[in-house]
Amino acid sequence: MQQTCRYMRACTTHRASQQLLIAFRPNVRSIAPRSPITQHRLSDLKRQVSIDSRFGLHTSIQHTMPLDRITFVTGNKGKLAEVQAILGSYINIDNRDLDLEEIQGTIEEVSSAKCRKAAEILKTPVLTEDTCLCFKALNGLPGPYIKWFMKSIGHDGLNKLLAGFEDKSAEAVCTFAFSEGPGCEPIIFQGRTEGKIVCPRGPSNFGWDPIFEYEGETYAEMDKAKKNSISHRYKALEKFKQFLETYDKQEEKTTT
Ligand SMILES: O=P(O)(O)OP(=O)(O)OP(=O)(O)OC[C@H]1O[C@@H](n2cnc3c(O)ncnc32)[C@H](O)[C@@H]1O
Ligand SMILES: [Mg+2]
Fold first, then answer.
1. In angstroms, what is the span from residue 207 Cα to ligand 1's centroid?
2. Which bound ligand lies closest to the C-alpha atom of 77?
3. May I ask the CATH class of domain 66-255?
4. Taking the mean position of all CA atoms in its chain, how far away is CA 104?
5. What is the pLDDT of residues 170-208, one digit of tens each?
6. Least crowded by CB within 10 Å, which of 23, 56, 86, 106?
7. CATH 3.90.950.10, the chain: domain bounds
């Protein structure tokens, strides 16, 4: 019998979700009797399915395998160091730096597209990540384009963008996308931390860390361990860790 990827089996445990999935994916047949992944709300699922249908994706057909290592695809050393510090004791992390196209679109669309492409190229379970910095006064901009703003106008320019506004608040948003392999629809894990934009303080060795202040300290001034216990990345990885725990339990059920 063909096996769908684990996520599809997990999704199909909700009655309404089953109907939704079967409507979109007539070939979904394998239904798990009980799913540990109960925190996926129907709205999330609808969004996931509508992303699928928009990109014309198909139900993935792949044999499940134990997830004891994962490839984190990034060229950013700062991200890699933090992911290893936060996640390294839960799963073995390999790193690859692929030049993946970052499409325009919502945060979730950008992250999913990047992850799908990485899974296709590497043919293995992959994790990708996209970071946004959203200024409230600018209705969320620069958002996913922060990398290009950083490159062209730097810390001072980012401060000047807000010069005419009283509201200096900003949100750091980290969006991880995980795919079990080629054809497996990415699952999204997002974390957000609110702070404000200030003149640079602290070492400049990771992106916009010196201008993002959280409770009186910039990310750059903070002890690394402290940043890794409150950051947007930490919050997203906490959700991914929960997913890994349920994934392992599901694996035990499948193999016993
Ligand atoms: O290969 P990828 O993972 O895409 O790495 P990247 O450096 O291109 O990263 P993004 O596309 O996500 O762009 C996000 C920008 O924000 C920066 N950044 C990401 N996380 C950060 C953090 O926790 N603190 C400060 N800057 C961060 C990063 O250096 C980029 O300039
Ligand atoms: Mg990038």
1. 7
2. 1
3. alpha beta
4. 16
5. 999 999 999 999 999 999 999 999 999 999 999 999 999
6. 56
7. 66-255
